[in-house]
Task: inverse folding
């Protein structure tokens, strides 16, 4: 027997269906979370573990070698490894502090090293034959600054040794004043910041390192083995990439070397005037590609076009 629904029963069914749909929609919306683009590129747990292992090795090596150099017992420990904007790193630098720029090769990038000067009097006292007594926090004299620079060079040498696996070399460039530090990299640059505690018998302080994003990304890729992925490309893929790369275009210029001209000659410039350049007549032009001087060359004519006959390779312009 066919059952006929009454109007109130039909309304009840529709009401139940609408309630089920609303609950399902609410459940779906509850699972949607807003994405924070500022968190992109953050260090993963695996990468942080690899960085910590690498810098624990640096801390042990620096502990041994710096203790031998200062002839005293000290301990270097990794305190933290984090990604922060460069302006936040600048805010952490004390007013009286030793800040140096460190060049990382072969990337040619600059990083920042900051050393608390609270440890400097004790270290200088040890090197001058004392017992390592702490002193007041103050700016360094020229002699004291040279001694601290030697300590920074030891730090750079141990960093290079510990970071051999990522192929980076740390080279101490020079001390930077507080007003100059902000010019090393953009203040909004996301940096990899490493903090080490140096603890001596009578004093302690922090050694902080800030690497720009290009260096941090290179380090993370090499530590996690992502660079090895290039070896897994098929022959067809490599050939296609090589073919595409060979079609890239670079700006090139054939020009004379730079010379200096007196201001009075520039003042008298006019069409048809001859200017004497301070170079011999047999001086060849320079072929520059991408801003790099590659060859000395002779201008020639090739049909309806200009050309350059390469004469001598310039050692400083050879791409490694």
Result:
């Amino acid at each position: 027997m066919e059952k006929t629904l009454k109007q109130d029963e039909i309304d009840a069914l529709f009401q139940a269906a609408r309630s089920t749909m609303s609950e399902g929609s609410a459940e779906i919306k509850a699972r949607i979370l807003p994405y924070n683009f500022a968190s992109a590129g953050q260090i993963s747990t695996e990468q942080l573990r690899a960085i910590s292992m690498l810098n624990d090795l640096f801390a042990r090596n620096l502990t041994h070698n710096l203790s031998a150099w200062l002839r005293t017992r000290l301990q270097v420990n990794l305190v933290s490894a984090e990604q922060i904007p460069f302006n936040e790193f600048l805010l952490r630098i004390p007013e009286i502090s030793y800040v140096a720029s460190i060049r990382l090769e072969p990337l040619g990038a600059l990083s920042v090293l900051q050393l608390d000067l609270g440890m400097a009097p004790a270290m200088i006292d040890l090197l001058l034959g004392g017992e390592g007594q702490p002193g007041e926090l103050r700016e360094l004299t020229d002699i004291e600054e040279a001694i601290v620079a030697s300590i920074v060079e030891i730090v750079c040498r141990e960093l290079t040794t510990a970071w051999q696996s990522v192929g980076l070399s740390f080279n101490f460039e020079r001390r930077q004043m507080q007003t100059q530090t902000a010019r090393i990299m953009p203040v909004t640059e996301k940096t990899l910041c490493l903090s080490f505690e140096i603890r001596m018998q009578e004093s302690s302080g922090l050694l902080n390192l800030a690497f720009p994003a290009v260096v941090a990304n290179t380090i993370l890729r090499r530590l996690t083995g992502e660079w090895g992925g290039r070896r897994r490309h098929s022959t067809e893929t490599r050939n296609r990439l090589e073919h595409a790369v060979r079609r890239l275009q670079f700006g090139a210029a054939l020009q004379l070397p730079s010379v200096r001209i007196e201001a009075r000659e520039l003042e008298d410039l006019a069409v048809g005037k001859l200017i004497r350049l301070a170079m011999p007549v047999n001086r060849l032009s320079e072929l520059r590609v991408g801003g790099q001087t590659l060859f000395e060359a002779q201008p020639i004519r090739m049909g309806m076009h200009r050309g350059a006959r390469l004469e001598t390779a310039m050692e400083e312009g050879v791409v490694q």
